[in-house]
Write a structure and sequence with these properties.
- With 162 residues, the protein is α/β, with parallel strands linked by helices.
- 49% of the residues lie in helices and 15% in strands.
- It has a 5-stranded parallel beta sheet, sandwiched between helices.
- Strand 1, helix 2 (34-48) and strand 2 (52-54) form a beta-alpha-beta unit.
- The longest helix has 17 residues, at 91-107.
- This is TIR domain-containing protein.
- Pfam families: TIR.
- Its main location: membrane.
- InterPro entries: TIR_dom, Toll_tir_struct_dom_sf.
């Protein structure tokens, strides 16, 4: 399905680029990191008015998971990756990363779509090359997990999305 979605397809956009995104950001995360995602949802949606696509809440029941992922990424202005050991172990998270990269290349003319949050520290040798590529090419935020740092973190994340 992925190949048929992106193989040989180049979006044609003029000056009126797609601005009718349903979401400001799709959040790619492992289920074991749901507590952090709930905190992020509270901060960004509740306090800052950002529209997030969260798979446990926004995916359409009965649709294929891969189809839900592709649709969610396509209808979101950004894709936020919540990097943790759990993320790396999840095949679906890695799939979401690859779909977001394809969206960036094929549909958005290499526009910066991916944004990485380093939620938990991971030893460099355990980070897959596909994620190291994102780390080296894109800006990212590290979650500080302290009161002052958290305030700055949420403000910087909000600025990166809007």
């Amino acid at each position: 399905m992925t190949k048929s979605r992106y193989h040989g397809y180049k979006s044609v956009r003029g000056e009126d680029e797609q601005t009718d995104f349903k979401y400001d950001a799709f959040v790619s995360y492992a289920d074991k990191d749901l507590r952090f995602v709930q905190q992020m949802t509270s901060k960004l949606e509740g306090e800052k008015g950002i529209r997030l696509c969260i798979h446990h809440r926004d995916f359409v029941p009965g649709y294929d998971i891969a189809e839900n992922i592709i649709t969610a990424i396509n209808k979101s202005r950004k894709t936020i990756l919540i990097l943790s050991p759990n993320f790396i172990e999840s095949e679906w998270c890695m799939y979401e990363l690859h779909i977001a990269k394809m969206e960036e290349i094929y549909n958005r003319d290499n526009e910066n779509v991916l944004f990485l949050i380093c939620y938990e520290e991971i030893p460099a040798p355990k980070i897959p090359l596909s994620i190291m590529d994102v780390i080296h090419q894109k800006s990212y935020l590290e979650f500080p997990n302290d009161e002052y740092g958290n305030t700055v973190f949420w403000d910087k994340l909000h600025a990166a999305i809007v």
